[in-house]
Specification:
362 residues, alpha+beta, 434 Repressor (Amino-terminal Domain), 4-stranded antiparallel beta sheet, 50% helix
């Protein structure tokens, strides 16, 4: 009950209709709406990461009397929008009105993150096990440790809702917290984004230990597609090794190169190039292509030019949100994957209107 007394009861269907109308107005103004669909079944989440988040939230005994109402709100589709960014969760929840929820979460302490990486090193059997949450009991105990794991403690969470409820955690906030678990079912990398850590550091630690005794590239190429799709990891392309048959034997003399006189056609072509040098525009385009380096500042500048959030820009490029976030944090030249580089060059040539049109088609 709020300080103003009981409000008149409004049927759920009527409340949802009003809320959807308001969300549609926001969508037309350019707001990217990310709803949580209606949930069925007893469990809110299905995967390891989603269930672990929900179990962690339910361990907060101070909030246990509010959580059941939150589950009800989530099941009937009242969470009209939920977005996860570094250190912040923002949402719109349908109640008697359309309420705005903001949950601020402190970044994971550096020392705590180092402990997690150290305790997980060598404990993951394969990269796919990590991505799909099929972890050993030891690793599960590390990442879900209430005191030293990846999930936030109570004092690291700050809750805020625009509803008139007195309680620190109202039913709208509880619904959003459960909604995070549902979102982690689809995008587990968002947990690392929320805590302000680079998930690739955890993966790299285990790649070094797990593949150290294997043949070079054997397991890395096997899971490369899964890493890029699920976690947004950008691998640098490795040079192709020279086949053994073409390698010069140790101590053998280098092969003598035969020198051939230029053909008549080559001589005529060279003469034409001297008489008709490339135009200034062609030289400028060539120089631009050669000097065009991609930095974190360039990514942030292009995203600001398009007036897009990190989530929108990531969808436009076809990468994950953590990839964009990590790029903008880094200094120096970015070493992107070939397909991401092609996507970057194509997006960079777009105008603001063309970029928006392309984003709406994805």
């Amino acid at each position: 009950m709020s300080r103003y007394g009981w409000r008149p009861y409004v049927p759920v269907a009527q409340r949802r209709t009003r809320a959807l109308q308001k969300m549609e107005k926001l969508r037309k103004k350019g707001f990217e709406v990310k709803p949580i669909p209606c949930q069925s079944g007893r469990k809110m989440a299905r995967t390891f990461w989603g269930q672990a988040w929900c179990d962690h939230i339910e361990s907060f005994h101070d909030y246990e009397n509010r959580l059941p109402r939150g589950r009800t709100y989530l099941r009937n589709g009242s969470v009209c929008h939920l977005d996860i960014a570094p250190g912040k969760i923002t949402a719109k929840v349908c109640g008697s009105e359309l309420y705005s929820v903001t949950i601020a979460i402190k970044p994971l302490a550096v020392r705590r993150w180092q402990v997690v990486k150290k305790r997980c090193a060598g404990q993951i059997g394969s990269l796919l096990e990590l991505l799909q949450g099929r972890l050993s009991e030891k690793v599960m105990a590390v990442v879900t440790d209430p005191a030293n794991g990846l999930f936030p403690r109570v004092r690291e969470i700050e809750l805020q809702c625009s509803c008139p409820d007195w309680a620190e955690m109202c039913k709208h906030v509880a619904a959003v917290l459960y909604g995070v678990g549902v979102r982690l079912d689809e995008q587990p990398e968002l947990l690392f984004l929320l805590r302000g850590v680079d998930h690739q550091e955890l993966i790299d630690t285990d790649v070094t230990v797990a593949t150290g005794t294997q043949q070079a590239g054997s397991s890395r190429h096997l899971a490369e597609g899964d890493l890029a799709d699920l976690f947004g990891i950008e691998f640098t392309e490795e040079p192709v090794a020279t086949p053994p048959a073409l390698r010069r034997k140790k101590g053998a003399a280098p092969a003598r190169k035969s020198v051939r006189a230029p053909s008549r056609r080559a001589t005529e072509k060279s003469g034409r190039e001297k008489e008709n040098p490339p135009s200034a525009g062609t030289r400028q385009e060539t120089a631009t292509a050669a000097d065009d380096v991609i930095t974190g500042a360039a990514v942030a500048e292009l995203r600001a030019f398009f007036d897009m959030s990190q989530s929108e820009f990531a969808r436009l490029l076809g990468v994950s949100v953590p990839s964009v976030w990590n790029w903008e944090k880094k200094s120096g030249v970015l070493n992107l994957q070939a397909r991401t580089l092609r996507s970057w060059l194509a997006v960079k040539a777009l105008t603001k209107q063309q970029a928006r049109r392309k984003l709406s088609q994805r």
